Amino acid sequence: MKKKDNGRKIYRTKEKNYYEKSTFEKVMSTVLTVFLIGGIGFLGYSTAEPLINFTKHMGDEPEPTTEDVVPPEETTTDEQPETETTVPTATEAPTAPPVTMEAYGAYSLTVTDLESEQSLQTALEKIPKNQGIEYVEVPLKTKGGMIYYLSTVVTDAKLKEFQKLNLVKISEMIKSNGYTPSALVSTFNDNIMPTINKETGYIRTDGSLWEDTALNSWLTPFSQNTVDYLVSVVNEITGTGFDHIVCTDFVFPDFTANDLKNLDERLSRNDRCVSLTSTANLLYNTSVANGATMFIEVSAVDVLAQKADILQSMLLTANTIVLNINIDELGEGVSDGRNYYEFSGTPAEKVKKCLGFISEFLYDFNVAVRISGSSLTSQELISVRDTILDFGYNSFVLG
Questions:
Q1: Three-class SS of residue 53?
Q2: What averages of pLDDT result for each successive group of 10 residues across the chain (399 residues)?
Q3: Using CA atoms, how far apart are residues 183 and 189, in angstroms rounded to an integer?
Q4: Which of 84, 122, 324, 370 could cysteine-pair with 397, CB 3.0–4.6 Å?
Q5: CB–CB of 326/300 below 8 Å?
Q6: Are 327 and 376 a contacting pair, CB within 8 Å?
Q7: Which residues have CB under 8 Å from 385's CB, separation 6+?
Q8: Which residue, among 91, 51, 11, 99, has the nearest Cα to 319 in the 3D structure?
C-alpha cells in the first residue's frame, strides 16, 4: 500500500524583531552614553560641595593655606618668599576693610593712672597731641577680675583694695581735658568673683571649683549668677558719663581633655559659643538702654589660635570689634595647633603682617585696631597708628 505523502514539514519560530544597527547608530549611541555618565558625575560634584559646606559648624574658620602660615615643623624667617606672599608690601594697595562706623581714635590709660586724681591728671596731660585722639579708655574692670573704681555693686574686701576714684569724678576729669571717656571692662577672665561666689565659677562633677594650671578660677557664662554680676557692673558704669564701653575677654579657659570629662558637657559641644554671644548681647542692650555704645574687644592671638569663639556675626547684636594686637605676645609667635605664625621686625611690620593674616576673619564687622604692649614707646605707637590707617582702618586705640 502506498504511503500517503503529507508534504514537507515547516517549523516556524516566533519573530524577535532584532535589527542590526548601522555603524553611524553605534557611534552615536557610544557618544550619548559618555555624555550621560559625565552629566551624572558633574551633578554629583555640584551638589556634594554645597552639602558639605552646609553641614560645617557655624563660625568654623577656613583652613589656612600653606602660603599663609609657617608649618610647625619648619620655622622660617621673613627673608623666605613663601611667608611674604600673605603680607601686603609697601608698594601694594591693601584691601580696605568695610568701614561704616565713625572714626574712633582712642588712647588707653593704665591702672596706675587711677591711683589718685593727681595721677589721672598727669596721665591725661601726657596723651600725644594732634594725633586724632578723641577718646580715653579707662581700665575699670581688668583681666583677672580687679575693679579700679569705687563700686556700689561689689562690697567684698577682695575687690576694694584698689578702688580710689568714683566713676563720675573719672569721667568729669577726662571731659575737662577735652576727651570723651570710654570704659574698658573685662568679662569672663575673672579669678576673684568665683572665690567670693562659687556659683559664678566652673564646677566639676564632684562639686569642687575648677581651677586652671595657674590655680585660678574663671567666671562661667553658663551661670545666671555670672551674667547678673556682669550686667550689674556694666549698668553701674554706663550712665555716669561713659558714652562708650569696650568689653573684653569673652573667652573660655584652655581646658584639657581631662578637664572636659569632669565639667559641664556643654563645654564640649560645638555650639558653646552661644553662651558667650548671649551674654554679649545682654551687655550691649544694657549699655544702649543707658545711652552708651558697646564694642567687643578680641585678642589677635586668640583669633590666630582659633580661640575667638565670640566672633559670630550672625549671633551678635554688637557689630564693632576692637582687635587688640599685643606686640609683646606676637614676639613669641602664635600656634593654632597645626600651623605656626611667626612675627619679626619692627612693631609696625609685625602689625602689618598680623592684619594680613586676620583681616578676613573680621570682614563682617566694623573694626578698630588696638596696639598694646609694655615695650612700646609713644613714638612707636604713633608709627604703628600710621600703619593701621594705611591698611584701611580709620579707628584705632593706642596703649
A1: helix
A2: 40 36 46 44 43 38 43 41 35 45 91 97 95 96 96 88 94 97 98 96 97 97 97 95 96 96 96 97 97 97 96 96 95 88 91 90 93 89 89 92
A3: 17
A4: 370
A5: yes
A6: yes
A7: 131, 132, 371, 396, 398
A8: 99
Q: Which pLDDT score, from 0 to 100, does residue 332 have?
A: 78
CA distance 288 to 245: 10
* In the chain, beta strands by DSSP E: 105-108, 135-141, 180-186, 244-248, 293-299, 320-326, 334-335, 340-341, 366-372, 396-398
- Tell me the residue type at 7: G
What one-character DSSP code corresponds to residue 63? P
Q: How far apart are CA 397 and CA 22, in angstroms?
A: 81
Residue 158: its pLDDT value, please?
A: 86
DSSP secondary structure string for all residues of 168-189: HHHHHHHHHTT-EEEEEEE-S-
Which residues neighbour 70 within 8 Å (Cβ) at sequence distance 6 or greater? 76, 83, 339, 340, 341, 342
